[in-house]
Amino acid sequence: MAMQAHEIEALIRESFPEAKITITDLAGDGNHYAAEVIDESFRGKNRVQQQRAVYAALKGKMDGAQGELHALALTTKAPA
User: Fold this and answer.
1) Rounded CA gap, 22 and 36, in Å?
2) What CATH code would you report for 5-77?
3) CA distances in angstroms from 60 to 3, 27, 56, 69, listed in the order given
4) Which tens digits make up the pLDDT trace of 22-56?
5) How far, in Å, CA of 24 to CA of 44, rounded?
6) CB atoms < 10 A from the CB of 24, how many?
7) Tens digits of residue pLDDT in 64-75
8) Are 14 and 57 in contact (CB under 8 A)?
9) 3-state SS track over 2-27
10) What is this structure's pTM?
């Protein structure tokens, strides 16, 4: 079952309540999204650490062939 953008944002927001989050449906199919997450907690962390934190917030929704979310192009950074 495909996920909606607001569901992805809600999962991320649980872990990053003050973040600026932008979700874009890339293919219009509910399976291929881009997400930009800007949060102060990313300051001092490298990109891999930032992205692992966001993937953890998705609580397994991308895991394996049966995952609800097929693809997520992820951009993370601390606020400027």
Assistant:
1) 5
2) 3.30.300.90
3) 13, 22, 7, 9
4) 999 998 887 889 999 999 999 999 999 999 999 99
5) 26
6) 11
7) 666 777 789 999
8) yes
9) CCCHHHHHHHHHHHCCCCEEEEEECC
10) 0.89
